[in-house]
Amino acid sequence: MEEKVRMTTRLKELFERPELFVLVGGVNPIGAKMAELLGFEAFYMSGGNTAAHLLGLTEGGTSMRDMVDNARRIALTVDIPVFADMDTGYGDAISVYHTVREYIQAGVAGAHLEDQTYPPTMAPSRQCISTEEMVGKLRAAMDAKMELDPDFVIVARCDFGWVPGATFQDVMERCLAYKEQAGVDVVCPYVKTWEENVEAIRRIPGPVLPLYTLSKADSRAAGETQEHPTLEDLQEAGAAGAWYPPLSSMAGLQATWEFLNDFKERGTRAINDFIERSTQSKWGPATVALILGTQRIREMEEKYLPKESGLD
User: Fold this and answer.
1) Cα 263 off chain centre by
2) Residue 168 to residue 196: CA distance in whole angstroms
3) Residues 143, 145, 151, 156: is their CA dihedral positive or negative?
4) Residue 84 bridge partners (DSSP)
5) What is the reported pTM?
6) pLDDT at position 28, please?
7) Do 240 and 188 form a contact (C-beta atoms < 8 A)?
8) Domain 7-248 falls in which CATH fold?
9) What pLDDT, on a 0 to 100 scale, did the predictor assign at position 214?
10) Among positive and negative, which fits the CA dihedral 89, 32, 190, 217?
11) Can you give the C-alpha Rg of the chain in angstroms?
């Protein structure tokens, strides 16, 4: 029998190959399963999405246990690698060491660690720890993975570009330190413009995962007009992956908002119309049975349950 390739190895290979891959982000097993069914090669468990869907918070508030338990449920559902948010590591370098071990034992294939202070934020103005402290955290992460699974992917995410007064050169110096002094597998330079991303990819050795994604839609509300780079743009720039943290959840959020508003206005006619639209969809109606596979449960019932019910 051919030996099955570990999920960590599969994710490592995705990051190292020349061809771009898409990281579909979200929060739960059904979103991950949809991504798998449609042929996407990896799934990302977003910290922000986890905070929103599990705790009802816009950001932060999640503990290491919240994140590891949620990631475990996702990893048990799919046969594609799961990449996870590790926030700031839930403490100091010692906490990072234990968090990496927890993620590996939960079946996660890789995780990213950011250099913000705790708790991290998505606010435009941020604070970051020193380069020295971040390098120590990253070394702890690398040691933890080398002890359990060397192929587990550690991504160093640099948010320093969002600190007031920080320059692009400051970000580059940090990213290079994370790569050269800690030996991380992948670097994520979280900078503000597409031009900065292109330059960062050029200057940072090894795989680079830019974070220039759907969160940029928020910039339009502030009067900015930058469009998302295409997958072809990302490939041409040399990005290792196309990373979209809310890709499997954002459409559902909007659809649910519109449907509930419609129901409040029109009552059960909204349900009837929604079902009709679903049946006419180009891709067909999305059902739990279709996405998660009822047939597998039937097969397990046939294999494991008594043929006849009742008392002996």
Assistant:
1) 32
2) 7
3) negative
4) 45, 111
5) 0.92
6) 96
7) no
8) TIM Barrel (3.20.20)
9) 46
10) negative
11) 21
Among candidates 36, 38, 43, which has minimal Cα distance to 247? 43
* pLDDT higher than threshold 90 for residue 123: no
Distance CA 19, CA 235 (A): 7
Token match 């290079």: residue?
A: 176
pLDDT at 92 (0 to 100) = 97
**What residue segments make up the domains of the chain, in order of their start?**
7-248, 253-304
Are the C-beta atoms of residues 17 and 231 closer than 8 Å to each other? no
Measured CA distances, 164 to 13, 119, 125, 160, 213 (Å):
36, 18, 6, 9, 21
pLDDT tens digits for range 179-189 = 999 999 999 99
Both tokens of 28, joined, read 């739960």
